[in-house]
Amino acid sequence: MASDEEIEARVRQAAAATGVRFEVVACDPALADTAEFCRAYGYALEDSANCVLVKGKSDPPVFAACIVLATNRLDVNGVVRRRLGTRKASFAGADEVEALTGMTIGGVTPFGMPAQLPIWIDARAMARERIVLGGGSRSCKIVGPPALLSALGGEVVIDLAG
C-alpha cells in the first residue's frame, strides 16, 4: 500500500496535469471530514464537494466515483444505480475505497483515480466559483475552480443529487 505522501504526490501530479491553477491546503487529519474542515478553516460548506465511491451490486461489482456538493444528497438508489446498470447500489466501504484508490475516507478525490473508474460529477458542483476537494489523504485538500474537474478527461457531468 502506498504511503500518504506517495498518494498526495500522485493526486497533485494528476491535478497539475489538468493545466488549471489550484491550491493545496494542509489540514489536521482529525478535521478532514467536510463539516469539520469547513468550520475549522473558514470554507463555505456550499463550496465543498465530496468524492464518493459507489458500488453497483452485481457479479462482479461495478464502481463509480461520484462528486457531489456537501450540501446535496447523492441519489445512490436512483440516478447512480441506473447509470451503473445494477438492481442495487450503495456507498463503497472504506476498505473497498482504499483497495481501489489507495485513498482514505476524508481524502478521496477524483485526481489520481484508476483510469477504469468512471467519474460522474453533479452539475451543481460545476456552477460554483470554487470547489474544495479531497487531497488524497486526510492531511490536505485541493481548492480551485470547477474547471479542474472538466479538465480531467472522460468525466461525465449530470444531475446526481436527489
What does this structure look like?
With 162 residues, the protein is of the alpha/beta class. The protein has one domain (4-158): YbaK/aminoacyl-tRNA synthetase-associated domain (YbaK protein, Alpha-Beta Complex), CATH 3.90.960.10. The protein is built from six helices and eight strands; from the N terminus they run αβαββαβαβαββαβ. It has helices at residues 4-16, 34-41, 76-84, 94-101, 123-126, 147-150, and strands at residues 23-26, 49-56, 62-69, 89-91, 119-122, 131-134, 140-144, 156-158. The protein has a five-stranded mixed β-sheet. It has a three-stranded antiparallel β-sheet with strand order 1-7-6, with helices on one face. The mean pLDDT is 94.
Tally the helices: what do you get? Answer: 6
Q: What percentage of residues falls in helices of 4 or more residues?
A: 25-40%
Averaging pLDDT over every residue, what do you get? 94
Structural class: alpha/beta
Per CATH, the class reads Alpha Beta
Based on the coordinates given, report the CATH architecture: Alpha-Beta Complex
> Beta-strand level of the residues, as a percent range?
15-25%
- Could you give the order of strands across the largest sheet? 4-2-3-5-8
What count of domains describes the coordinates?
A: 1
Shape: globular
Features:
single chain; YbaK protein; five-stranded mixed β-sheet; 6 helices; 8 strands; 28% helix
